[in-house]
Amino acid sequence: MSIRLRLTLWYTAILSVTLLLFGIGLYWLLNVLYYDYIEDDLRKQGDAVYRQIQPRINVTLGGDISFDFVLQGQDIVNNTNKFYQITNFQTGKLRGSENLEDAGIVLPPVTDAQKQKLLANTSFFSRTQVGKLQFLIYHMPIPLGNQLAGVFQAAVLVDSSERLFGILRFILVFTASVTVVLAASFGWFLARKALKPIDQVIDDANSIEKGADLGKRINYTGPNDEIGRLTSTINGMLERLQMAYSELEESYRRQRRFVSDASHELRTPLTTIRGNVDLLEKMWKQTASVGSVPERQQLEMSLEAMHDIAGESERMSRLVNDMLSLARADAGIQMPKMELQMLPLVAGVARKAQLLPRSVEWITGDLTPLQGVYVQGNRDYLQQLIYIFVENAFKYTDQGFVKLDAVRTESQIGLRIADTGIGMNSEEVPMIFERFYRVDVSRGKTAGTGLGLSIAKWIIDEHHGSIQVESRPGEGSTFIIWLPISSISDSEREQAFPPPEDSGILEE
């Protein structure tokens, strides 16, 4: 969730809670004040009418005496927009004001709970619905001696007031909803406008990240607020990174130049040493054939020493050549490429690989997928690439075989080198292409510099290819070199990807 959306949601939530509390408070205050006024007016009018109640004695034919209650002062009773009713608990008779009788309304009798309040000589209000009308009723007890003779009820119609408060509730809810929607939209607009400089900072930072020029800076023309200080901090960090990168690049450049120069300088004396050693070895072999036995023994020992010197100088020459190749790779030298036919190139390497030092069987598998396939590459480096993997397989395979074959997809050609050697753990596979890295189980047992696979990886990258490795300890390894196909002969395309058979349906 973006900061812009979070800010908008926070503003909207705060405003919604504020409006909710304000609406509830306003509605409750108006309701309380209004009904306090209505109750106070009803109480005054009810007390005035209550004082006009007069008891009347009724004598029955049997001589029994009962009391009834009548309302005096009809001018007060009928002109106050209030309704009045007297309930006689002894006879159960109801007497209402004329306006109540004209309306055909009878106020509901008191409940048992309300009667308990009247027995305690307590007056109270209640809100009751009669039919579809809402009434506010004021209840007052009518005592007769020490007994409760009846109840006087003064009522006022509050149906219009309830509708008014219903309209008020609707207005509050509708106004609050519209206000929240408008505030959220306006808040989104303000948040977007306030955070727009951050988007500019992000875009500038992305352009700096994707570009090669670390000298670019984030342009900010706004005030020196939090965003301005953040921009200044990022620009300062970029400046320090540029300085550190420049120093590091200069250090790498000097290192690459040193390795390249040293490799060039070492090749000449090593070549001279190897040439002189070969010459001395030939001369001593001729001398050893005519000398005495002690002299021949001494010359044979010298020849062994010279042979060791020649071997070590040859190993140093390979190391220097590998370092020179990597120095060229680090310097970004682009190798020349041309369209090459893969089958003759790989077949030639397979034929020459039989002459390499090995102790296992060399198998040339199916190379027919290479027929008619062309790649854009460098012949010498591609041959070196295959030799590196083949020599590596011979080096780490004591028994079994090493096999070379080819596989093909629609857009790539793969050269597969499989062996039955020592294999590797899955954790070691990603590191074998690092310089001077060697598998621990082979360290000290097999000769090598640890640079061959680094050179192979560089050659693959220069040809826009990839390498696939499958290996298990003790079971061997399989390397598949994938190279993009630049073109393929028409005959081979038809053989590899034949057209669909005719369905028999004639096109118009």
Automatic annotation (TrEMBL):
Q: Where does the record say this protein resides? A: Cell membrane
Q: What broad class describes the main subcellular location of this protein?
A: membrane
Q: Which residues cross the membrane?
A: 7-30, 135-158, 170-191
The record ties this protein, via CDD domains, to: HAMP, HATPase, HisKA
A Gene Ontology cellular component where this protein is annotated is: plasma membrane
Which residue intervals define the domain HAMP in the entry? 192-246
Q: Which residues form the signal peptide?
A: none
> What molecular functions are annotated in GO for this chain?
ATP binding; phosphorelay sensor kinase activity
How does the record classify its membrane topology?
A: Multi-pass membrane protein
Q: Where is the Histidine kinase domain?
A: 261-487
User: Sorted alphabetically, which keywords does the UniProt record give?
Assistant: ATP-binding, Cell membrane, Kinase, Membrane, Nucleotide-binding, Phosphoprotein, Transferase, Transmembrane, Transmembrane helix, Two-component regulatory system
Q: What class of enzyme is it?
A: transferase
Enzyme Commission (EC) number: 2.7.13.3
Record-given protein name:
histidine kinase
